[in-house]
Amino acid sequence: MMQLYQPLNILGFAYREIKQSLIDMEKMFSLLNVKQEVEDRPDARPLQVDGAAIAFDNVHFRYEEDRPILKGVSFTARPGEKIAIVGHSGAGKSTISRILYRFYDIDEGSVTIDGQDIRDVTQDSLRAAIGMVPQDTVLFNETIGYNIAYAKPGATQDEIEQAAQMAQIHDFVTGLPKGYDTVVGERGLKLSGGEKQRVAIARTILKNPPILILDEATSALDSVTEQGIQTALRNVAESRTTLVIAHRLSTIIDADRILVMDDGQIIEQGTHAELLAKGGDYAELWQRQQEDRQAAE
Ligand code: ATP
Known about the structure:
Layout: H1 2-32, E1 54-64, E2 67-77, E3 82-87, H2 93-100, E4 108-113, E5 116-117, H3 123-128, E6 130-133, H4 144-149, H5 157-166, H6 170-174, H7 193-207, E7 211-215, H8 223-237, E8 241-245, E9 257-262, E10 265-270, H9 272-278, H10 281-296
Parallel strand pairs: 3-8, 3-9, 6-7, 7-8
Antiparallel strand pairs: 1-2, 1-4, 4-5, 9-10
Bound molecules: adenosine-5'-triphosphate.
Protein name: ABC transporter ATP-binding protein/permease
Subcellular location: Cell membrane
Keywords: ATP-binding, Membrane, Nucleotide-binding, Transmembrane, Transmembrane helix, Transport
């Protein structure tokens, strides 16, 4: 029996490893939605983060020839600032986050973090410095504990629970019969969009990156879930340089700067109050969302 057990055990291990890499790849590709294009320069150095100031300077970018997507985008984020990006679908908001993560190289202009061009640093060090909370998180068919700890191998149960508490998901998890050992994902407990996003937030809290990119879910959430998520996001954004891709303007009133994008350009920027006073596109969008909200209520 022991003779059989050993190879079977190895086989089981190999199967789990392969399954895990397939899921990881699947997750990567769904996140990237692209082929891997960029390479480290031979002399690439690790990114040295000192406060995490971000600067986009006259950035031009196209995915395909003849179809410019970003047409001269410039903005800055000082250390710890929260910058919100709003605009119609297809305006180029997510493209900005993909470029910061360097899924693609730009055609013209520059993107720097603390004065270092992101093309001059290693991709590993760049991505280690950025936490992404995507709209739709893919969870592994593993326990909730594993899914949260994924960003920090070797995290203790205490650390996992602390992160979950900050992400407003701890009470939900402890309410499940198997708690943190509950298997989730396609073949386990199916979590709602809001629950999955909070798991992603807990994961990011554990990763503890100096830069954060939050992609707000487009789908409407019930107001209790929405409130929970907003609290969780505020917790995680605290003292980090944050880019929020926002769909509901009510969630970004407190942003240090709001960039309004249209067709690959920033057409307005300022605080919520400044943009309302200006009476331009943002003010119009705000008015429309307020009316929709009142009608829904
Ligand atoms: P949404 O609010 O709907 O998420 P967005 O403002 O984030 O929209 P982006 O995802 O940045 O928009 O897309 C900007 C434009 O780039 C769109 O017209 C889109 O079709 C195009 N685009 C996005 N990804 C690719 C790709 N991988 N290849 C080619 N074109 C792409």
